[in-house]
């Protein structure tokens, strides 16, 4: 697992990097000075992003927002002091794991692995939701096409579906595509 470590405090970043480097399953890459978090993520393609902030700063969340919007991946945030309001903002910005820690840094590997697992779980849920929405939309298009066939050709509902299926097979297309064309053509004629 490749970990991108973003921390302005070189001493603290070095300590965290040493803890992570002790695990042969992890490789650590660092954010370069003055490099944006989004650019580093795009260029380095890490599996997880670890951001360490001594003083939580709402402006610093902009980089996390950019990463979450452009190139989704788990983001683990470490802060020195707990701030419930900032935690809410950080999670809304795209942070997968918010952690208030002191010094010396704890063994962050379990936290990173948990953040990746939670991120993947939420990603699967988002993907499942998108697929369900797509299926519902396709079902609605097919139902509209069947309603048109029932009304115009005086077909029964099963016969309207058979007509759509047969036409799709003949044309080598998906039923929803044939249904969409029929709906578009008939709704276009109605205007």
Structure description:
With 191 residues, this protein is α/β, with parallel strands linked by helices. It folds into 2 domains: 2-107, Response regulator (Rossmann fold), CATH 3.40.50.2300; 128-190, Winged helix-like DNA-binding domain superfamily/Winged helix DNA-binding domain (Arc Repressor Mutant, subunit A, Orthogonal Bundle). 61% of the residues lie in helices and 13% in strands. It has 7 helices and 5 strands. It has helices at 10-21, 37-44, 61-70, 84-93, 109-153, 157-171, 175-190, and strands at 2-6, 27-30, 48-53, 75-79, 97-100. A 5-stranded parallel β-sheet has the order 2-1-3-4-5, with helices on both faces. Helix 3 (61-70) packs parallel to helix 4 (84-93), helix 5 (109-153) crosses helix 6 and helix 6 packs across helix 7 (175-190). The protein is elongated.
SSE topology:
Blueprint: E1 2-6, H1 10-21, E2 27-30, H2 37-44, E3 48-53, H3 61-70, E4 75-79, H4 84-93, E5 97-100, H5 109-153, H6 157-171, H7 175-190
Parallel strand pairs: 1-2, 1-3, 3-4, 4-5
Helix pairs in contact: 3-4, 5-6, 5-7, 6-7
Structural class: alpha/beta
The run of helices and strands is EHEHEHEHEHHH
CA-CA gap between termini: 56 Å
Number of helical segments with 4 or more residues: 7
CATH class of the largest domain: Alpha Beta
Oligomer: single chain
Largest sheet: 5 strands, parallel
CATH superfamily of the largest domain: Response regulator
- Percent range for β-strand residues: 5-15%
Give the overall pLDDT as a whole number.
86
Q: Specify the helix fraction band.
A: 55-70%
Low-pLDDT ranges: none
Question: Which strands sit side by side, in order, in the main sheet?
Answer: 2-1-3-4-5
Query: What's the shape?
Result: elongated
